[in-house]
Amino acid sequence: MEQNINNALGFPILSMLIFLPLAGAAFILFIKRENVQAVRSVALLTSIVAFLLSLPLFTAFDKTTYMMQFVEKHAWIPYLNMNYHLGLDGISVLFVLLSTLVTILCVLISWESVKNKTKEFFISLLVMESAMIGVFCSLDMMLFYVFWEAMLIPMYLLIGVWGGPNRVYAAVKFFLYTLVGSVLMLVGIIVLYLYAGRTFNILELMTKAYPYKMQLILFWAFFAAFAVKVPMFPVHTWLPDAHTEAPTAGSVILAAVLIKMGAYGFLRFSMPFLPDASRAMTPVMLALSVIAIIYGGVICLAQTDLKRLIAYSSVSHMGFVTLGIFALNIQGMEGGILQMLNHGIVTGALFLSVGIIYDRTHTRVIADYGGVASVMPVYASLFILFTFASIGLPATNGFVGEFLILLGGFKASQWAGVLSASGIIIGAGYMLWLYQRVFFMEVSPKVEGLPDLNMRELMALMPMVILILWIGIYPNTFLSFMHPSVQHLLDRVNGSGGPVVASNIIAEILR
Amino acid sequence: MPFTMPNLRPVMPEITMTIIAVIMLMAELVIKRKETLAFMTILTAGLLSFTLVGSMGTTFGGMFISDGYSTFFKLIFIVNMILTVLISSRYLETLRINFGEYYSLILFSTLGMMIMASAGDIIVLYLGLELMALSTYVLAGFIRYDVRSNEAAMKYLLLGAFASAILLYGTAMIYGLTGTTNLRDIASYIAANNISGNPMLILSMVMFAVAFSFKIAAVPFHMWAPDAYEGAPTPVTAFMSVGPKAAGFAVMGRVFLVAFGSARMDWAAVLIPISILTMAVGNIVALSQTNIKRMLAYSSIAHAGYMMVGIISGTPDSLASVLNYMLIYAFMNIGAFGVITMLRTEKFRGEDITDFEGLAKTHPMAAALMLIFMFSLTGIPPTAGFMGKFYLFMSAISAGYTWLVIVAVLFSAISAYFYLRIVMLMYMKEPRKAVELNATSGIGLALAVTAAAVLFIGIMPSMFVNMARVAVAGF
Which of A155, A295, B75, B199 lies at a C-alpha separation of 20 to 30 Å from B268? Predict the structure, then answer.
C-alpha cells in the first residue's frame, strides 16, 4: 500500500527545517563571546527564518489524505536498513509549526534575562529546535530515536546551567527519568525491527501484525518512554522540578513541545504498532489519566510557587490529553491532539507570563505578589485570557479541546467522563484563586512601581493570544488537518485482530 | 630435515615493528630531543598501517593468522598508539619522566597486542600477552618517584602474573585433553569427539575465562584496574584502558568462538554472570568515585561488561559489533583522558572531579570536548557511543539475549549519572580553583581527531559498521 506522497514543494523543506537551526547554532559558535548583541540577533533571525520556512507546511498541506507528505528518503545505514526518512501527516504537521513558533518566543523572552553564557544558551536553544522538529518528522524508528535522545543534551543543559537555585537536582532527575524510559523503548524498537523483518520504517511497521503477547510487553516498553515524557501518573514527579527550576525558555519548551512528544509517541507508535495491546490496555490508561487529572489538580491547590502550580496543572491537562487519545474514538482523539496544541499554547503563554514578572521581581512565591492588576494592567488583561483558556472557558481554545475530550471520554467510559469533568472544576478553582492572589487584593511592596509590558514582551505574547482566540472561535482550521489521519489511525487500532475478550487476554498472559 | 622458509608476509607488520622498536631503543641514546622519538613512533604507526595491507594469510603452520579480524584489531592498536603518543609528550615533560624508553615500551606493548590478535595457537597467544603485559607493567610504574605509580605497577604485575599462570593452567589442561594447542585443531577435536560437557574441558574454559577476565578487567577479576589506572601516568592509563582491553577481547573472540565454538552453551554459562557482574559493579561503584581516573577505570570495567554481551551472543554480527564498539571506545576514552592530561601541571594534579568545576567558564573549548566524550560514553545520540551500543545490543537481541540486553541498558542508564556529573561540574558550578591548561599542538590534534571521530561515527556509522562486518567475514 502506497503511504507516501511526494513532496509537492520543489525543495526538501523538512531537511531544511531541521538543519537551519543547526546552521544558526554553528554560526553562533564562531561569534565572539562578548558580542552578545550579535549572538541573540543571529538566534532570533534563525528562528524567524525557520518559522517562515515552516509556513508552507500550513498552506501546502493536503488535508484530504492520511498519507505522509513532504516525504524525503535517503539511505543512512544500508546494512541495518536505516534510512533518513522524513514526512508529515495530519497528526504531526501542527507540532512542527508549534515548535518553530515557540522557539521564536523563547528567543524573545530570553533576550535580556539570560546574562551568563549567552552564547551557549542560544546554541542549546537552536539545537533543541532542530531535534524537536526531527522528532516530529521522522518516519524511521531509529532516526526518531536519535532525535528523541539527542534532545536530552540541550534540555539538560538548559535546565542545569540557566535554571533556578535547585537546578542541578532538577536537571539530573529529568535526564535520568527520561533516559531509563528511553532505553527500554530502544530494546522494544529492536525487537519490533527484528520481528518485522529488519525494517525501521514506521509506515511498514504499522502494517504488520504482531503476536498479542509480544504486543503487550512492547506496549509497556514504549509506555516507559512515553509515559515519562507526557508525564503520566505515577512517573510525573520529574516535571514539577524541571519546570520550576528551568529558565523561562526551558519551561516554555518543556511545556509547549517536549511533553507533547510523549502523547505523540502513543499516537504515532504505540497505537498503530500495537493495536490489540492498546485496546486491551485502554482501561488502565483511562484510569491513569483520570488519576492524573484529579490528583494534578488537587495538588495545584496546595502550591505556593507560581511555576510549580503551572507545572502541576500540566500534569492535570496532560491527563486530559491521554484520556482523549485512549478513548479511541474520533472525538476523543482529535480533542486530544487539539488539546496538546492548546496546552502548548496556553501553558507556554503562562510560563512566558510568569517569566516576564519573574524578571522584574525575582520571586516565584505567590504570597509575595498582590495587586499586580493595578500596577501592570496590560499584563493583567492578557493573563486573565490565559487563565480562562487554561480553565477551558468557551471562546478560548481550551474549551474546544476539553469538550471534545470529555465527549470522547464519556463515550468510551462514563465513569472516566464524569470523573474527569470534575477536573475542570478543580482547574477553575486553582487558576482563579491564583489570579486573585496575584493580581487583586492589596498591592504588595514587591510589585509596586513595576513597569508594564514592553514591546518585546508584548510581541512574545501576542501570537499566543491570537492562537487562543482563533482555535477557540474557529477550531476547524486546525481540526481539518487531522481528520483523515486520525480516522486512518482509528481504523488501524479498532479494526485489527477483532475483539479481544478479557478472558482471552488473561489466558494469553497466563500461558 | 630440509628447512623451508615460512611465509613471512603475514607476519611482516610485526617484524617491522620489532625492528623499529629495537632501533628506537638504541636511538634513544643519541637522540636528546624526545619529541623526535614521539614523532618517530607516529611514523612507525603510519608505516605499519602500510604493511598491514596485503599481509593476509596464515603462516608458521597455522600458529599465526593475519585475517580481517586481526587487521581490524591492529588498526585499533595503531589508533591507540598514535593517540597515546600525541597526548604523552608534554605530560612526561611536566612530570620530569621524559625518558626515551617510554616510546619503545609503547611500541613493544603494541607489538604484543598485535601478536595476540593474530594468534592461531595458544602458545603464540601467551607470547604476545606476556610481551604486552610486561611492557605495560613498566609503563604503569613510569613515575618512579611516585608511590602511587609504584603501587600501580606492583599490583598490575602481581595480579597479571596470576592471570598468566591461570592461562597456562588452562592451556595445559586443554593440551592434556586434546593433544594440541592450535585453536582450530582444538575446535575440530572437540567437534569430532563430541566432548562438549566434559568436566576437564569446562574447567579449562573456566581457566581461560578467568585469565581473560583479568586482562579486560571483568568483575570479579578487576581489583587491579582502579589502582593501576589511578597510579599510572594519565597517558598510560589511556593506553591501558584501550589497548590491553582490545587485545583481551581479540583473543577472547578467537579462543571462545573458534576453539570452543562448539561448546558455546557451556562457556556462555560462565561468561553471562561475569558480564552481568561486570556491568553492575563497574557502573555502581563508579557512582561514588571522586578521582576521575578511578571513575573512568570503573567505567572501563562497565564497558567491558557491555562488550562481553557481544561475545556471549556469538554470532558474526555480534562479533562485528564488538569490534565496532572497541574502535569507538578507543576514540571516546582516549579523548576523555586527553582532556584530563591537559589539566595536569607541575603543581596541580587535576585528577579530582571537583577540579572540573566551572571548566566551561575558564576553558570553554576543553569543557565542550569533555562534554562530547562524556555523552558518548553514556551512549546518547548523536555520538558514536550510542551507535556502538545500539549495534551491540541489536545483534545481541537478534541472537536471542533480549533479557541480557535489558540488564545492560538499565545499567547503562545508571552510568548516565556519573558521566553527567562531570558535565554538571563543568557547566553548572562556578570555578573554585585556578585551572591552567597544559596544552600542546599534539594534544590539540589528538582531541580534534577523537572528537571528530566520535561525532562522525555517531552520525554516519555506515562505513565503520561495514568495515567491522567485512573484518569478521572470514573469521
Answer: B75
Residue B251: name the closest of B115, B78, B105, B107 by CA.
Answer: B115
Are the beta carbons of A94 and A488 closer than 8 angstroms?
A: no
φ, ψ for residue B265 (rounded to 5)? -60, -35
Q: What is the pTM of this model?
A: 0.89
Please, are residues A173 and A163 in contact by the beta-carbon 8 Å criterion? no
The span from the CA of A271 to the CA of A492, in Å, is: 8
C-alpha cell at A52: 517562515
Residue of A nearest to B362 (CA): A117
Is the pLDDT at A90 greater than 60? The verdict is yes
User: Residue A362, SS3?
Assistant: coil
Given CB atoms, is B131 within the 8 Å cutoff of chain A?
A: no
Residue B220: asked if its preceding bond is cis (omega within 30°), the reply is yes
Whether A180 and B410 lie within 8 Å, measured CB to CB: yes
A168 to B391: CB separation less than 8 angstroms, yes or no: no
Q: How many CB atoms lie within 10 A of CB A245?
A: 26
Burial of A2 (0-12, 13-18, 19+ CB in 10 A): exposed
Max distance between CA atoms of chain A, in angstroms, equals 71
How many Cα atoms within 13 Å fall on the side-chain side of residue B10?
22
For the record, the C-alpha cell of A375 comes out as 500596577
Q: Does residue B229 sit at the A interface (CB-CB below 8 Å)?
A: no
Angle at B53 between CA B49 and CA B57, to 5 degrees: 125
What is the Cα B182 distance to its own chain's centre? 25
Please tell me the distance from the alpha carbon of residue A327 to that of residue A414, in angstroms, as a whole number. Answer: 11
Residue in this structure with the C-alpha cell 503520566, named with its chain if needed: A232
What whole-number percentage of chain B has pLDDT above 90?
49
- Tens-place pLDDT, residues B442-455: 889 999 999 999 99
**Residue A424: in which H helix or E strand, if any?**
helix A414-439
Q: The complex's ipTM?
A: 0.86
pLDDT tens for residues A176-196? Answer: 888 888 888 999 999 889 888
Distances (CA, A) of B162 to A392, B105, B202, B251: 73, 22, 20, 18
**Between chains, do A149 and B469 touch, taking CB under 8 Å as contact?**
no
In angstroms, how far is the first alpha carbon of chain B from the final one? 33
pLDDT digit string, tens, across residues B424-474: 888 888 888 778 888 888 889 999 999 999 999 998 888 888 888 888 887
Q: CA of A28, closest CA in chain B: separation in Å?
A: 14
DSSP code for A373: H
Separation CA A45–CA A14 (nearest Å): 18
- Arithmetic mean of pLDDT, A202-223: 87
Q: Which pLDDT score is estimated for B370? A: 92
Q: Which of A157, A187, A193 sits opposite B409 (nearest CB)?
A: A187
Residues with Cβ within 8 Å of A77's Cβ and at least 6 positions away in sequence, in order, are B461, B462, B465
- The alpha-helical segments, DSSP class H, found in A196-266 are 202-207, 212-229, 238-245, 248-253, 260-265
**B-chain residues near A193 (CB < 8 A):** 394
Question: Please, what is the angle between helix A476-495 and helix A275-301, to 10°?
Answer: 130
Q: Cβ–Cβ contacts within 10 Å for residue B197, how many?
A: 10
Kindly determine whether residue B416 and residue A153, on different chains, have CB atoms separated by under 8 Å. no
Dihedral Cα B256, B157, B34, B143, nearest 10 deg? 140
Strands A82-88 and B57-59, by their bridges, are: unpaired
Segments in A4-117 forming alpha helices (H): 13-29, 36-59, 93-109
Contacts of B223 (CB under 8 A, 6+ apart): B155, B159
Which residues 6+ apart lie within 8 Å of B46 measured at CB? Answer: none
Q: Report DSSP letters for A143-177, one per residue.
A: HHHHHHHHTHHHHHHHHHHHS-TTHHHHHHHHHHH
Q: From residue A88, give the alpha-carbon distance in Å to each of A5, A7, A183, A235, A243.
A: 10, 10, 25, 29, 29
pLDDT of the residue at A275: 87
